[in-house]
Amino acid sequence: MTSKMDTQDSLATLNNVSQQDEDNEDLASMSLMDHLEELRWRIFKVLIVVVIGSTIAFFFRNWLIKLLEAPLPDTANFLGLKTGHPLVVTGLTEGFTTYLLISIVAGTIIALPVLLYQTWAFIAPGLYEHEKKHAVPFVFIGLMLFVVGITLGYIVLRYPIQWLVDFASDSFTPLVTAGSYFSFVAVFILVFGLIFELPLVLTFLARFGLVSKETLQTKRAVSHIIMWVVATFATPGADPYSPIILGIVMSFLYELTIIFIHLFVKPESLEA
After folding, report:
1. For the chain, which has fewer Cβ within 10 Å, the N-terminal or C-terminal residue?
2. Helical packing angle, 94-110 and 32-59, nearest 10°
3. Is residue 45 located within the same domain as residue 175?
4. What is the pLDDT of residues 3-62, one digit of tens each?
5. Are residues 154 and 209 in the same domain?
6. Does 242 share its domain with 256?
7. Domain for residue 117, yes or no?
8. Residue 264's domain spans which residues?
9. Last residue of a domain, one of 167, 196, 225
């Protein structure tokens, strides 16, 4: 009886090895042009969703404008105190291009689940079977981290804006244009969102042996000091709140990366 069970286990192991070898052969048989063609089509699919999302966002442009204008102080526009409009446009097309910018950024955020899925689908052929089951958690965690990042960026936004507006108000008459303001807001919020994706990026690097949990743990103290120094100089303003919030965020993400590597990267999955 024991011999029969051992034989069945051996056959199952041989089948798994054979299937894995076939998958590796299929992956290896793909030429560089095949990979580029697949990447092109996946990028094309993401762009289609971005266009659809941007079109939807364009119909809600007035609501988006009001939402993004909320962190802007009343003193940002001297004329706005009389006209009621906190921003001005200085060119014929600036109003339209501003709407277009906001819509594209919103469309990109809407397309994020598709972007994450297409990214996973592109790299999945190079993963083991037990790693492919992480597809849904990968998309879900990536989406949640990005949403938390842009939400936090929106909350922090008011502090550097207030400082930048007040800094030169004694020497100059504030007159903030729509283009400059929303470009700043878009970059600021998207950067926060992308920063929150770092744990996933580093987890993938750990999967290929480029980063290890042990290295991150060993360099923990030095890394936290460096991150807080970077947070002090990276924030666009001299307010005391932004560097503190960014420093806490970066330290949190560093520890979260160690947890992700521990959960999703097993020693046997590392590349030789």
Report:
1. C
2. 120
3. yes
4. 444 444 544 444 554 454 444 445 445 566 776 788 888 889 999 999 999 999 999 999
5. no
6. yes
7. yes
8. 202-272
9. 196
Does residue 77 contact residue 88 with C-beta atoms inside 8 Å? Answer: yes
Task: Kindly give, in sequence order, each residue whose CB lies less than 8 Å from that of residue 129, ignoring residues fewer than 6 positions away.
Answer: 19, 20
Kindly report the average pLDDT of the chain as a whole number. Answer: 79
pLDDT tens-digit profile of 66-122?
899 888 877 666 655 555 667 888 888 888 999 999 999 999 989 988 888 888 777
Residues 262 and 181 reside in one and the same domain: no
In this prediction, residue 30 carries a pLDDT of 59
pLDDT per residue as tens digits for the range 251-265: 999 999 999 888 877
In this structure, the answer to whether residues 184 and 207 fall within a common structural domain is: no
- How far are the Cα atoms of 75, 93, 175, 214 from residue 172, in angstroms, in the given order? 12, 26, 9, 53
Global pTM value: 0.74
Residue 173, helix vs strand vs coil:
coil
- Given its phi and psi angles, is residue 89 left (phi above 0), alpha (psi -120 to 50 degrees) or beta? beta
Q: Is residue 29 part of a domain?
A: no
The total of other beta-carbon atoms located within 10 Å of residue 178's CB is 23
Cross-strand bridge partners of residue 55: none
Q: At what angle do helices 135-167 and 198-207 cross, to 10 degrees?
A: 140
21 within domain boundaries:
no
